[in-house]
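Reopening this ticket.

The earlier resolution said the output was attached, but the attachment link was broken on my side. Pasting everything inline this time so it's all in one place.
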Amino acid sequence: MRIGLVRLHTTVLEVGPRDGLQNEAKALSPDDRIALIERCVEAGVRRIEAVSFVNPKRVPQMAGAEEVMKGVPRVEGVSYSGLVLNRRGLDRALDSGVDEVNVVVVASDTFSQRNQGVTTAEMLAAWDDIAASAHAAGVPVGMTIAAAFGCPFEGETPPERIAELARRAEAAGAFEVALADTIGVGVPAQVRDLSRRAKEAAPSAALRFHFHNTRNTGYANALTAVDEGAAVLDASAGGFGGCPFAPAATGNIATEDLLYMLHRSGVATGIDMAAIAETGAWLGTLLDKPAPALLGRAGGFPA
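Inline output:
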């Protein structure tokens, strides 16, 4: 039985190996991160944010990105994304053989300076250079607009700002624009509004959403995004995640919990929900803490 039919298929991008781990007190080895990616691939995940090419002194959990990329399983139809913030990161990503480049542009200056050491305007200049170079290398590049729903330092993010950034992404040929609720303050009404603004500003780009469940609105936001026609939803196995530069930022929406909601709503993903739930529990043992996800505790329905 399915409760209703929203759309036939939604792609889930697994961000656990990057966003899921970057804020954890315990840093996992490249081998453990490769094992996490292998489990996700075996479960049917076909897009994975595998690594972040940032300074390991600032984010030690992401050290060894090249080693991780060297060890990931190369399976037909599986695409690996690498996060980059500057030209140096792009060069490392291209040398490592990523399939996609993801560039984060923060919508507020204060958060951008704390997170990346540059203003939003400076990051946009870097974005233009990164996008041009990625295109020259034949690698698709997308923009993630961070703090799209609110900033921990400046408060509300003006929706007009999101449209402006989406237009810059479109102008540089982004294949995808992601709206990220980095600190988990968004609600469905914002999802509807920002979705429509972003689609108008960047009609050629696919729309992706990245939600955190800090205030227990992440799953409602995700279903609203599907209703609005979002092509891709980010999620993290086990529900781990957070930003080391955002106060009180908690985990991403859990992949297994998202899959339960989507599958029961008649939305196919091609991913084995039970296998991801097992992966979330396994990841919790590596991190020495229980996974925030609920499906691993309650199980699916019907049993």
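Reporter confirms the inline version is readable. The beta strands are 11-14, 47-52, 79-84, 100-106, 141-146, 176-181, 206-211, 232-235. Residues 1-6 have pLDDT under 50 and may be disordered.
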